[in-house]
Amino acid sequence: MRALVVRRYGSPEVFESQQVPDPQPKAGELLIRVKAIGINFADLLQRMGIYPGTPKPPFIPGLEIAGVVEKVVEGSRPPEGEQFKPGDAVTALTNFNAYAEWVVAPARQVHRLPAGMKFDDGAAIPVNYLTAYHSMFTMSNLQPGDRILIHGAAGGVGIAAVQLARARGLVTFGTAGPAKQEYLRKMGVDHAIDYEKSDFVDVVRKFAPDGIEMVMDPIGGKSFSRSYKCLGPGGRLVVYGFSAAAGPGGKRSVLRGLTALLQTPRFSPLKLMGESISVIGVNLGRMQSRTALMRSELDEIFQMYSTGKIKPVISKTFPLDQGAVAHQYMHDRKNIGKVILSVK
Ligand SMILES: NC(=O)c1ccc[n+]([C@@H]2O[C@H](COP(=O)([O-])OP(=O)(O)OC[C@H]3O[C@@H](n4cnc5c(N)ncnc54)[C@H](OP(=O)(O)O)[C@@H]3O)[C@@H](O)[C@H]2O)c1
């Protein structure tokens, strides 16, 4: 099969389109013909060699796909519902190996697409919406009227969080660069913040002097302590990324990573107790073993899709062999929403 291989860690040109052996499903796994691949920021970090658990090159990156079941191996029954069969349209979370014409995935990480869902949407939903949903409703129990600050609000997870917040009656603060402000307003962010012009702590405190209920922060470094300053009693800071470590060109920079690490706050349990604030870490990769919870969250997300409450925003679709261009597009922060690789 054809696959996009990372030959060595580095900037996007390290990708090479290669013929590699077809993957062989084992007991409990399905073979899936890939139609669309969702690119996640994590893939950029995998390519750079700074994502935890990344194998040594050469390897195939990527975490999520949508496609059609080709082969069902014994023991690959889903945890509930009907057995998968060849021809089923599905989405799957993979552990690497997604940038390819074929993938194998454990049945517990494969979900049927709702009727009528296009493959691009099927590849755009799982990681972004599960991360936002799990952070906001499972871990933070947000209620209508609660106020949330969403960083990177025009990115993949950011737009998912804004849509989910609006569907549940939350008040939204969202940060993004200057070129994305109009889009934030168009999608209904209540307080759009251009981080180049305004200090987000000042904006939040202006509208909520006592502090807000939740911040979702994937930026890291000094951003974590600034986000903490936005919270009031009962507030939750969800930390789920470290974009600050990724430089603009997509090159590895030890200095940049180290600076962000040194700027990362240390939270004291006694201070957290005294202020009645929670700091919550979310890592979707680690949550895959919580099969029942992940499946019920995705069922709810698909239900919201089917009733028109959410709809992934696809910024651009590139053919699989243009993966390097697609990664550069994300490093250049040109995407509003999700970037997809399509497989013909
Ligand atoms: N923990 C988990 O399970 C989990 C799951 C999914 C994603 N994440 C994390 O969530 C974050 C967003 O992921 P995503 O897939 O939604 O990414 P995305 O679509 O590329 O959106 C990220 C946005 O962050 C901003 N940004 C900040 N620093 C950046 C940098 N160094 N390079 C490029 N953009 C930067 C950009 O918006 P502006 O132009 O407005 O600045 C960008 O559009 C990432 O940190 C990712 O690792 C974590």
Count the beta strands: 15
Structurally, how many domains make up the residues?
2
CATH level-3 fold name of the largest domain? Rossmann fold
H/E series = EEEHEEEEHHEHEHEHEHEHHEHHEHE
Unique ligands = NADP nicotinamide-adenine-dinucleotide phosphate
State the share of residues found in helices, binned by percent: 25-40%
Main CATH class of the largest domain? Alpha Beta
CATH superfamily of the largest domain: NAD(P)-binding Rossmann-like Domain
Output the structural class. alpha/beta
**What Rg is obtained from the alpha carbons, in whole angstroms?**
20 Å
The unreliable regions are none
Broad shape = globular
Strand content: 25-35%
Architecture overview:
Strand 8, helix 4 and strand 9 (171-176) form a beta-alpha-beta unit. The chain folds into 2 domains: 2-125 and 313-342, Alpha-Beta Complex (Quinone Oxidoreductase, Chain A, domain 1); 127-285, NAD(P)-binding Rossmann-like Domain (Rossmann fold). The mean pLDDT is 96. The chain has helices at 41-48, 119-124, 126-139, 156-167, 181-186, 200-207, 222-228, 254-262, 269-275, 284-287, 291-306, 323-331, and strands at 2-6, 15-19, 29-39, 64-72, 89-93, 102-106, 110-112, 147-150, 171-176, 191-194, 212-217, 231-239, 278-281, 314-319, 338-342. The longest helix has 16 residues, at 291-306. Strands 3, 4, 5, 6, 7, 14 and 15 form a 7-stranded mixed sheet that branches. The chain has a 6-stranded parallel sheet with strand order 10-9-8-11-12-13, with helices on both faces. The protein has 344 residues and is α/β, with parallel strands linked by helices. Bound molecules: NADP nicotinamide-adenine-dinucleotide phosphate.
